Amino acid sequence: MEQVIIGVDPHKLSATIEVVDQHEQRLGSGRFTTDRAGYAAMRSYAKTWPQRVWAVEGSNGAGRPLAQRLLEDGERVVDVPAKLAARVRLFDTGHNRKTDAHDAHAVAAVAVRTSTLRVLQFDGELEALRMLTDRREALTRRRVQTVDRLQALLAELLPGQAKRDITTGQAKTMLASVRPRDIAGKTRRRIAAEELAELISVEAKIKKATAELKTIVLARGSRLMDLHGVGPVVAARTLADVGDVTRFADRNRFASWTGTAPLDASSGEQNRHRLSRAGNRRMNHMIHIAAISQIRLDTEGRAYYRRKRAEGKKSLEAIRCLKRRISDAIYRQLLEDAQRSAVEDVGASPGGHCRASQESSAVDLPLHIDTSDQPLPGPAEKTLRRTG
């Protein structure tokens, strides 16, 4: 039986599908709710075509929950970037007006016409890393808000004695030193004590999440933390968002995806590049953390940064150069880890067959293709590793 494509336009409460053959002839369609009954009805409807591939739009966004459920049930799923679906919708209809039916057809058409779409694969460890990193980031934001409220209260209780970077121990000492007698002061101190208790609780949760991330990263055999400035959080976010590093053709494509490759802004005889705002901004932030850590410590990254400043580059320009170096180092380490894992799987598999999959994880992000692949100048091939 001929293989069919099931294009899916996913939403929180519903999913619209269209089934097409390899000639883009419509074979069926439907709209289903995303609750258990609706999902079961959609699966039952799709069983009419045993040789089926689900094409889900935005499997890292609105389509993630549905893609995850399909993968867990053993279905074959590919990811269709929203940009590609929008282009097909525009070319096929002559306009860009959106309806769920048009979207589902465009998603299916992209899957038929494009042979390089990412085939998704469920990876429980990567999904756990994604959830834990998201959780830790939320806790970090909560900690900042709690510290701000606590400092404001302490500034009122002890005018002129509040610290900017306060620790829980310092806050305890400051609270113990004040004994207001009026009702407003007593209320202020009680609320400050509650904020302090919340801060202690949040910091304990952050510490626990960080330890879990480190355990999973090491269990996967990743050596990302061998790089200067790359701790458990940066390594976990990198693994969760990158998924299968082989989907990037080279370090330039990887840098384009991380937003560390500059955009070509040359004109006439003038050759220059400007800052890219595209790419995966979470990964860009992780690389920025690694860059700042390298600059603060006695590392090769600090020496490289200072050379760039000596060449006349401004601080932010030098940091961008360093971020590109770190992006290249991360890419090389990911490749080395993948190759080492493949070799180990060959030795561990029965009959010597490699178990390493060339499919991408369902937690991957769409590859941005609208940024320049031009590398920044500088010795980008030198790996920035920890010494000793």
UniProtKB/TrEMBL annotation:
The UniProt entry's coiled-coil ranges are none
Entry protein name = Transposase
Q: Which domain of life is it from?
A: Bacteria
Please tell me the species this chain comes from.
Nocardioides daedukensis
| Every Transposase IS116/IS110/IS902 C-terminal domain range | 222-306
Domain (Transposase IS110-like N-terminal) ranges:
6-159
Give GO terms: molecular function aspect only. Answer: DNA binding; transposase activity
What's a single GO BP term from this record? DNA transposition
Pfam family for this entry, one = DEDD_Tnp_IS110
List, alphabetically, the InterPro entries matched.
Transp_IS110-like_N, Transpos_IS110, Transposase_20
Annotated region Disordered: the residues are 345-388
